[in-house]
Amino acid sequence: MLRKPKKAWNPSIWASWKPFGIGEQYPNNYWEVIRAALVNFDELPYAWEILNKGVCDGCSLGTTGMKDWTLDGLHLCNVRLRLLRLNTMPAFDHKILENCEQLYTKSSAELRDMGRLPYPMRRDIGDKGFRRISWDEALETIASRIRATTPERTAYYVTSRGTVNETYYAIQKAVRAMGSNNVDNAARICHSPSTSALKATLGVAATTCSYKDWIGTDLLVFIGSNVANNQPVTVKYLHWAKKAGTRIVVINTYREPGMERYWVPSIPESALFGTKFAEDFFLVNVGGDIPFLNGTIKHMIINNWLDSQFIDNYTNHFEELKATLDAQSWEELESLSGASREEMYAFAKMVGEANKAIFVWSMGITQHECGEENVKAIINLALTKGFVGREGCGLMPIRGHSGVQGGAEMGCYSTVFPGGRKISPETAKEMSKLWGFEVPQTKGLIASDMINAAAESKLDVLFSVGGNFLDVLPDPNYVESALLNIPLRVHMDIVCSKQMLLEPTETVILLPATTRYEIPGGVTETSTERRVIFSPEIPGRRIVQARPEWEVFMELARRVRPELADKLFFENPAAMRQEIALVIPQYAGIQHLQEAGDQFQYGGSHLCFGWKFPTPDGKANFAALYPPRNELPEGYFLVTTRRGKQFNSMVQEHKDRITGAVREAVLMSSVDAEKFGLKNGDVVVLKNDLGEYKGRVYTAPVKPGNLQVHWPEGNVLLDKSKRSQEGVPDYNALVRLEKV
């Protein structure tokens, strides 16, 4: 049994004795409520209904209304409040787009604030801007271009913001009916290394535990993850975890202030005095996670802090891992990780003494060239004590986007079919039989490969549902030149973005999409903890010409392949859920979701429960790992990109209320600042062979030798050729620093 949190107030976990944290740097969440009310004043009843009945379209926590399945009480975060206006805003006057020249200087935020896309619109080469067209003209133009080329010269990308299971499923089915596997979504850029590593080691491809396991476990470890910024509702769980005696540990390059302390607005004790979360921080170099975790395991082996019975009976390859670790010296592990042998010992002792532990990670782990190996290093550590498949234990690649968990599971991936079936002639034959039409047998282009194909004039059509390659991928100049090389670009979204405004090579078409709350009959999403949740349709303001993406792709596929029209039609999302339940075994039950509050957790509360691993031999697999060698020449820094006050690439404020850093800040340690004769506010330039970034020094508790800059601004420093095995870009770089 997990320990229960004590309800009595406990001053030992207070962040400050100053009431309401007066004078402290932290978000004013009460102001966020007031701000949301003011911004949505013209649609307050609709906004309230969305908050009260809708499933959160912010992070992948998966609240329904303002409640969830972990704790009683109100759950409402500032991420969701900031996104609310995207659902309630009116359409802009389409004449704004008649001359795009005046829009080129606007920021992404200013373009969003113009309002919703009102109609299908078209811009041809030589046009100053867009003109309104009918849906029929738009879809026939797209269909005729697809018919005129070959499937391998078309590509389709789906963002994760607010995208639901039904949309993912319909889009990938439509694309495959049109003869292509070139369909990808944002889940790859975030957590495909997690999916791959979990599948290889444990036989599962998702979070193994539930959020409830956080509260009362012995040890809760966050590695390369900042939930206070990216999944702020979870700070409520952290508060109650502390009240239950859970020890919270953070392994990161930066001592994140929000992970150290926070004022949780919905809990009176925390709202008044704040809550101390992590008291144990281990700062490592960018890319130093594997050597730190390897050193931790070395200590555990030396001190016999292992569950030998579990290792002997339920795992493979531990001896190979041990031999690999024996060959790695402490000096090597200290140098590469940036942490001392003593620090590794301190963490190992915490893990060794814990009876239960959970490991949570995010893009600070996955978005590296060695992303898959980073995840396997975490899994190795968990397996030394059997911290999986039981209460209070687990491995959690936490999601930052609502519904993104379902993206790959629905098969909206260039490398897998629905249900995680790897693309092969055998699985293609299986899908062909299920759908009644021939399915392509070879893997398609992942997102970054789509851009490479465009740069090489090998792409004739790009259909992007949401997303903004200009902001999210490394080397934005290269991305822009590639996009300018595509004869037909189609952008379907609810608002205007920068990539829509790029000059057409031949033709650009814009299509207005509905939000999830506008889809007739309601839809579903899947949360981080594998909970499939019904999100109802909510009456309110409508953009008359906006259409659901799933419906558009089904019609487009019917126009391209009219002979398959009877196989490419769903009467409504409910009919689609019937098919999903048949095609994707773990989603059996989705067909019964039809009202607000309906949900189920596929796989139950714990995957691999009772140490039953769905691998060929029923055992979990250790992985022998060697640390990557990130040599740091004299005068150079390792730099990583970070999020501020933003949602994905949608920057919401110039200043991050948690850290106090502005967008152009270059976060660096005071040790490095003193070494280079720098002080706060000094202008510096970060340079490498790929580009340069001008910013201002902001001293912070960062590991010396490392820097942090905000994303997407720092993308100019990133190497587009550096990717993980699953094709995830490496959002880190080696730079030299110059004072201006």
TrEMBL record:
One Pfam family it belongs to: Molydop_binding
Keywords associated with the record: Iron, Iron-sulfur, Metal-binding
Domain Molybdopterin dinucleotide-binding: 637-732
Residue stretches making up the Molybdopterin oxidoreductase domain: 116-558
GO MF terms held by the record: 4 iron, 4 sulfur cluster binding; formate dehydrogenase (NAD+) activity; molybdenum ion binding; molybdopterin cofactor binding
SUPFAM superfamilies linked: ADC-like, Formate dehydrogenase/DMSO reductase, domains 1-3
First and last residue of the signal peptide: none
NCBIfam families reported for this sequence: Fdhalpha-like
Protein's name in the database: Formate dehydrogenase
Organism of this sequence: Hydrococcus rivularis NIES-593
Organism lineage: Bacteria, Bacillati, Cyanobacteriota, Cyanophyceae, Pleurocapsales
